[in-house]
Amino acid sequence: MGPRGLTTYKRVSGDAVEYEVFARKTRAEPLHQVGSVVAPDDDLAMAYARATYDEERWCEMAIVRKEHIIELWQPGEGS
Amino acid sequence: MSLSDLVLSIADNKQMLGLRYAEWATRAPSLEADIAAAAMGLDDLGHSRVLYGCLEPLGADPRGPERESDPASLRALAYFDEPWSEWAQFVAANAVLDTAFTVMVEACVNGSVDVLQHRLRKMLLEERYHFLHGRSWLKSGIDPKPLNRAWREAIEWFGPPDGEVEALHREGKLSLGPRELRARLEEQLETKSPDVHVDWKGWDPLRRRSRPGAIDEQTFGMLRGLEEKRFAATKEA
Asked: Domain residue spans in chain A?
């Protein structure tokens, strides 16, 4: 056991997946990225996103697997 | 037992569940799980306050002065008597007991009592995330010992097939009786409960448990604010 007492505990089965978290406070504003979470499945990612980013009164929150985001270009690349 | 007694039992259990969750806010297997433990703890402590607030409108507050001195007068399950030493205990409580309390809250919200219909509805939205958390960790596989204990205590907590919860169901105050509550819990967790034989003769209808005992002294002191007073005295010295 490590200093946290449980560091050798196996995380939930399956590989951890990175999810981006999006939210907005009013219907008038667009969804924007508020952060990210790492979880082994969608259910746990929803629970973690809600627990981690619940400090604001969001009217909408959504998560998406980072691997499902299709990038058109990245910083430093011209459009 | 009245509906107030049942609501007090849900409140006391949610208070203890919230405290035990909070104890794991720096001990869970990942930072995300730490944060989830803290958030769920806050939720359940908040839910207990809402439930305590329903007792007066229900017309009979069963809380007596003995709750200040006798930890055995609190109506929480034996599962919460001692702090959990293993993550599997957390997961079993999160998946089975938290969901058991939620299906009872559902039965209150869908029953005929106005104050419960309105005040408890928001809990169900928040509890969705507790359920997702518990079910996902449960699917990863945990030690069957705490899991079986959580199932047993949940089934005992729903009460005997012909007891007061069933009577409240027949009166329409609860939308589900013990049999339906157990079936709903199984449906939610997508699993059959283990074979549980309860000797209802030894069951305490107020505390809704068979095991004797009570919460540990330190937790009881914390509930009464004694731990905070001790801290304040140290600061002054």
From this structure: 17-68
